[in-house]
Amino acid sequence: MExxxxxxxxxxxxxxxxxxxxxxxxxxxxxxxxxxxxDLVIRSVIVERANKAVNDLHKKATHYVxxxxxxxxxxxxxxxxxxxxxxxxxRGRNAKSYTSAKNASINDxxxxxxxxxxxxxxxLQGRTDRMLELIHLGIExxxxxI
Length: 146
Known about the structure:
The protein is built from 7 helices and no strands. By secondary structure, the chain is mainly α. The protein has a domain at 45-146: Ribonuclease iii, N-terminal Endonuclease Domain, Chain A, CATH 1.10.1520. The radius of gyration is 15 Å and the shape is globular. The two termini are 30 Å apart.
């Protein structure tokens, strides 16, 4: 029998996490968790589609999780975002980060941070269906194939 509880709900239950208003998180905190959940989604799809050598899986995943690809996706998605989602993206994009990407332009890095903030926001709100919808749509609209 398959459990219907969301992963985040299960994590909160097992580790006895207190409820926090997601809107209170800094945009960089949202990007931090958003980077991980987006990476998990991409890796899950890649693994489900092909049982390959780990190095090959990593190379394929890197194509989708690098800042340049995320920036391309968020530009392709902008007309599909609600006002709330656009505001979260912009907060993440405009956040002052003290790190920078090794292999990306500052513009791609900031746009990717906004994308990750949006993914984190949706995940922490339990809106995984919307998060997955945007990831799928972003990959399609940006011309990438997975």
